[in-house]
Amino acid sequence: MALSSIIKKTCDQCGKVAVEKSRIQFGKSKLIALECGHMITEEVMTSSGIAHILNNTTLWPYQILGVEFLERANGKALLADEQGLGKTIQVQALIKLHQAELLPAVIVCPTSVTEQWHHEFRHKCGIQGFLCQVINSSKVMAAPGFDVYITTYDLIKEEKLFDMVRDKIKLVVIDECQRIKNHLSGRAKAIQKFCKDMEHVIPLSGTPIKNNAGEYFTVLNLIAPRLFPHYATFIERDCDSYHNGWGYKVGGLRNSELFHEKTKDFILRRTKDEVLQDLPKLTRKFFHCELDRKVNKAYAQSLKELEDLYYSEDDSFTRQSNMLAIMTKMRQVTAIGKVEQCVDFVTEFMMSNDRRITIFAHHEVAITLLKDKLNAWLSDNGFKPLLHLHSGLNPLQRQELLTTFKDTDHRVMIASTLAAGEGLNIQFCADAVMFERQWNPANEEQAEGRFHRFGQEYPVSITYMIASETIDEYFTELVESKRAIVKSTLDNKEVQWDQSSLMSELANTLIAKGRKSWSLK
User: How wide is the angle at C-alpha 156 spanned by C-alphas 150 and 162, nearest 5°?
Assistant: First the structure.
């Protein structure tokens, strides 16, 4: 099996790998100079009347500009707008404007949003001319005659499912494309193989990278294989690296200004602050609380285990894995110790207003405790029981649960942070508790983005529940720093990468600050 499925284009005249040197646009065509000395041309799309192309929807000015950008890129570009700015709408408008060039199309997305994509096409584009087939099982074959095929990352690997239509597909849309950030993963290889000879490819993500600039490569290779034909060259020329204590890792962009200049024709990213000045602000609040004394001993014991391992002479990969496992256990203990505080916070919220509230949590044991205690209080005080959004629900069940949360008297929902982070619209709710922090801040931003998006009428308030002098408090400063690094990499700002990894730095902080408060007597 090949190590990767990196896409490489060849020059039609000399047969060498086609590496782009420069490009100039003349009206409806682009003239591209290759390093081999030959020239090629590409056509671009044009249209008019974009604003009212979709049913029941008028595109905002920035969305019209987004559609025009995709046209100039000839339907081969990364749309990286911040969550909530309507990436789906812009793609649908493009498809409806250019049906002859772009249909049939394949939408590859997380399982949780297949039903939403189907609904959006019916609602925004109409059934006539936009027949959609949802392929959600390895037993369902893509049938000829449909305009849009909606499938998942796992099922795109099943090549036989598309045997009857593969040669007819003109466009592939890759929703939440951060899922193929590792170009050596099975998902990435499957997408690369499927898109190898595809003229139009549009990846979508508000967070196309989560940890380092090297994660850009898969998407860059899909949409601009002549500029990014080699992973090693991309890392060497475009990325910086840093030492994490065990070896060199990929960090930020080597020269963000140069990179953004090189990719300005096929990467478009706008933030809410740039395009939606009147969108209600999102406020992060940090609610500090004490850990429940019942778990103090368990937390202190875990910290002692971390300290012993930290100072051990073992410097192997197993040691790193064990340290991460201990810190994960500390997070779980901390979550259990915050349940009572969270219940108090939510019940006070319920009594002080008539709004809805969502609680994002991660560990099942903490979620179970929260459900039991909150449901008991809700029942005693005449409220409907809480709703629970989790990964075990299929797409239709998720949509039905959200409809219930929106249109009934249910006012509390517990949601798995990861399960609710992609493709869901919860802008009818403006208050949330981030009960447990995530190792990666991009996952938290995706969850926040479910509220702070087009259609939100009220200021969004996200309350982070922090147990003082625990891994919660020490991690908060580090995770905010990491969020700033990733954001600056995406938004063309200077990146200052730390010399050690986040986990190593967290372990250092826990040992340095946590020992005195939590030493076992």
Answer: 75
**104: preceding bond cis by omega (within 30 degrees):** yes
Cα 195 to Cα 445: distance, rounded to the nearest angstrom: 29
The first and second tokens of residue 18, run together, are 């086609």
The per-residue pLDDT for range 313-337, each reduced to its tens digit, is 776 667 778 888 898 999 999 999 9
- Contact (CB, 8 A) for 115 and 141: no
Work out the number of other CB atoms within 10 angstroms of the CB of residue 36: 16
8 A C-beta contact, residue 521 and residue 300: no
DSSP-assigned states of every residue in 421-476: SSS---TT--EEEE-S--SSHHHHHHHHHTTSSTT--S-EEEEEEEETTSHHHHHH
Task: State which fold the 49-275 domain adopts.
Answer: Rossmann fold (3.40.50)
Q: Give the whole-angstrom CA distance, residue 138 versus residue 109.
A: 15
What own/partner pairs with CB < 8 Å and gap ≥ 24 does 27-36 have?
30/74, 32/226, 34/226, 36/11
| Under 8 Å between Cβ of 253 and 431 | no
**Using N-to-C axis directions, what is the helix angle for 317-337 and 364-380, rounded to 10°?**
10
Secondary structure element (H or E) that encloses residue 253, with its range: strand 248-253
Task: Please report, as a single letter, which amino acid is at residue 293.
Answer: R
What is 282-518's CATH topology? Answer: Rossmann fold (3.40.50)
Share of the chain above pLDDT 90, in %: 35
- Kindly report the number of other CB atoms within 10 A of residue 218's CB atom: 31
What is the rounded distance in angstroms from the CA atom of residue 351 to the CA atom of residue 420? 26
Which among 224, 225, 208 is positioned nearest to 263, based on CA atoms?
A: 224
Each residue of 306-333: b (16+ CB within 10 Å) or e? bbebeeeeeeeeeebebbeebbebbbbb
Domain boundaries, the chain: 49-275, 282-518
Backbone dihedral angles phi then psi of residue 26, each to the nearest 5 degrees: -120, 100
Model confidence over 251-286: pLDDT tens digits?
A: 888 888 889 898 999 999 988 778 766 666 787 888
Domains 49-275 and 282-518 share a fold: yes
Phi and psi, residue 479, nearest 5°: -70, -35
